[in-house]
Amino acid sequence: MSRRFYPWVVLMALALVWGSSFILMKKALLGLSPIQIGALRMIMAALFLLLIASDKIKLIHRKHWKYIFFNALLGTFMPVFLFAYAVQQIDSSIVAILNSFTPLNTLILGYLIFGFVFRKKQLLGLFIGFGGTIFLILRSAQLNPQDNYWYALAVIVAAIGYAFNVNILKKYLADLDATAIAVGNFLIVLIPAFIVLVFTGFFSQDIIHAPVLPALGYMAILAFIGTALAKIFFNRLVQISSPIFASSVTYLIPLVAMIWGVLDGEKIFVGQIFAAGMILFGVYLINRD
Questions:
Q1: Alpha-carbon gap, residue 90 to 22, rounded angstroms
Q2: Of the four, 175, 196, 219, 243, which is 20 to 30 A from 265 by CA?
Q3: Is the Cβ–Cβ distance between 190 and 39 less than 8 Å?
Q4: Given pLDDT bands bounded at 50, 70 and 90, which one contains residue 166?
Q5: 75-102 as b/e, with b when 16 or more CB fall inside 10 Å?
Q6: Distance between CA atoms of 215 and 32, rounded to whole angstroms?
Q7: 177-230: per-residue pLDDT in tens?
Q8: How far from 271 is each of 80, 139, 254, CA to CA, in Å?
Q9: For the purposes of burial, counting CB atoms within 10 Å of the CB of 204, is it exposed (0-12), middle (13-18) or buried (19 or more)?
Q10: Rounded mean pLDDT of the chain?
């Protein structure tokens, strides 16, 4: 596959996986609390990565660990819990849309703190995609007026964490194997996540019966595919493209969530199709030479 199209393939695959993760979290909440979901997601992902790629740890040098720690805190530990709480109170498709604040945060932080430059076409594409996202947010708010939108702040804080994470990856970890970054990331959060899980009373629950057992099944899919493997591919995407392009995956995630909604019987409107077109055109401009 040519280098030109490879980033696009990875971007689309990540959008498909992460766009489906909100539905999985919603299903898992039927048997687990938000804190349990966050902790289990990290524990399962960590154990899976250590099982298949523990040898990658030797690639991590002392200079890398500081940045992997911030990567783990801002890009994994904090957002996992924030998203779990948000999905409990807000429609999952709206949470996916709110996550689209990440590219704008990435550009601002990259320019002000990390010294990255950007092209005018990237800025134009960013705001076109952002405009489409704002339309989807307003439309979803009309369709779901009963949701508690104070929890939207949790998603926005998580999006800021993701923006720091992307810029740290590009500036300080570009020379490190993408899988090694993911293994180091989850190795750091494994013990804290396990401690959190213990204090939730998870091990005193009746785990092998409904609704906990089906929830654990959804969590396994979310952890192995939507967290562990997706983290590897996202790390690689940041390395082979720009931080802005990599973070633009969050513009595509709501489109996947919208498709899930249609498959679940929801209606789609002409305005939503137009907004989807705006988002796709914006992402195209962001990565155009």
A1: 11
A2: 219
A3: no
A4: very high
A5: bbbbbbbbbbbbbbebbbbbbbbbbbbb
A6: 7
A7: 999 999 999 999 999 999 999 999 898 887 777 788 899 999 999 999 999 999
A8: 31, 9, 14
A9: exposed
A10: 85
pLDDT tens for 71-83 read 999 999 999 889 8
pLDDT band at 172 (very low <50, low <70, confident <90, very high): very high
d(CA 162, CA 166): 6
Rounded to the nearest 10°, the torsion over CA 187, 179, 118, 154 is: -40
Q: Which two tokens stand for residue 230?
A: 């997706």
For residue 93, the model assigns a pLDDT of 67
At residue 236's C-alpha, the angle toward residues 22 and 107, to 5°, is 75
**The two three-digit tokens of residue 42, written as one number:** 């990290």
Q: Alpha-carbon distance 263 to 258, whole Å?
A: 9
Q: CA nearest 178: which of 133, 120, 238, 106? A: 238
Q: What is the pLDDT of residues 108-142, one digit of tens each?
A: 888 889 888 777 777 788 888 788 877 877 776 67
Q: What token pair was written down for 161?
A: 């964490």
Q: Of residues 277 and 221, which shows the higher confidence score?
A: 221
Q: What is the DSSP string of the chain?
A: --TTTHHHHHHHHHHHHHHHHHHHHHHHTTTS-HHHHHHHHHHHHHHHHHHHHGGGGGG--HHHHHHHHHHHIIIIIHHHHHHHHHHHHS-HHHHHHHGGGHHHHHHHHHHHTS-----HHHHHHHHHHHHHHHHHHHHHHHH-TTS-GGGHHHHHHHHHHHHHHHHHHHHHSTTS-HHHHHHHHHHHHHHHHHHHHHHTTGGGS-TTSTTHHHHHHHHHHHHIIIIIIHHHHHHHHHHHS-HHHHHTHHHHHHHHHHHHHHHTT----HHHHHHHHHHHHHHHHHT--
